[in-house]
Amino acid sequence: MSSTDDLYGLTLTTSDAAAAAYNRGVSALLRVQTGGLGAVSEAISHDPTFALGHAAMALLGHEYCAPVDIQARILAALLHADRASDRERSHVHAVVEHISGNSRPLISHLHDHPRDALLLSIAVPTIAFAGVTTVPQESWAIVERARPAYGDDWWSTGLLAFVRQEQRRWDEAMALSVASLDVEPAAGHSVHARTHVHYETGDHVAGRDWLDGWMSGPGLTSDNLAHYSWHAALHELSMGDYAAVQSRYDQQLAPPTVVGCRALVDSCSLLWRWSITPGCGAVPAMETVAESVDAHLLDAPPTPFMAMHAAVTLCALRESDRLGKLERWCEGHPDPTYADVVAPLCRAMRALADDDPGAAADRLGALLGRVWRFGGSDAQREVVEDTLIAALLASGRYDEARPVIDRRLDRRACPRDETFRTAAAGG
Questions:
Q1: Range of the structural domain that residue 264 is part of
Q2: Of 49, 150, 240, 327, which alpha carbon lies 20 to 30 A from 271's?
Q3: What is the pLDDT of residues 29-52, one digit of tens each?
């Protein structure tokens, strides 16, 4: 055995062959490219005593819904951590606690080891990972604290670009994204940040066209291609080009191309937002997509973010009883976010599924100021506001719908929001 370095100069207590495979895997994960799971698996085949390799496998099982025996990998990581460095032992402890629901050790670890890039990536809600906090300012602080340790590194620049777009500092986010992509055209976080800038500023045609070009070029091997496709479809939905949405859904977002977690977060949310758009025409049935999603993701979702999408999907399926069960499950969850924001969302969506849009609108309106606690991005959480507008229109409360729509139109141009506005004005 020998000790070697990871991508950012931190010691790895393992063989050279295992370290090389691990670094390939982490490199793929930082780029949001395929191959991460396979390369990390190769690392522990080279060295079954490699603690960080086992910890990374457990993380990918937990975060990516990858087919991994998470508990077995955790036990192996803990067993072999004793022979590793202090930093590696801290890394393993942070991973184990994070998977168990306590992310404070991971945050503390990053204070001491900001160049532990895999765990920094885990800590921040992005296209790849759910993050360790639903409070945006806490995520931003984690990235800002670590930034000096990376200098002008392309990956760190892309991570900062995503933070800047969340802060609505659009020009800075775009500049950082472009700078990162000039160095690494396959940089997934940078692409994601740029995509959000295009969407949030209403630059739908250019955003869709740029994204399509990237997906057919450097992004061909992206590990989250479905999510980029969702972004492109959201541009098309915003433009009111429903034929384009249909084509993209059929080719890039329908099962069996997309299933499981990604189907719930991307395909199901797209179908719902599409279906509640005035004049949208025929929309594919939610049932086909929902059948590809494991039942536990709908009935006992592992994060508030997934729970938000579960509630939307169950409403679209008109499964009022399951929404009621999910609501009660959330009320008893030890994470207060479930009781505080997911349970009220379930109550609202259950009212809508039971053909009571007025009650749904009341409950969604009361919830709107807390949606940030679901996690994810503004573009994803916007599904709640979309549903509020649809419920207000369905209940004939046009005077209440108009200000909500007008605030969106004041922020950015959006033909889809114009159709909402026309429906409200007609009322």
A1: 204-212+219-293
A2: 327
A3: 999 999 999 999 999 999 999 999
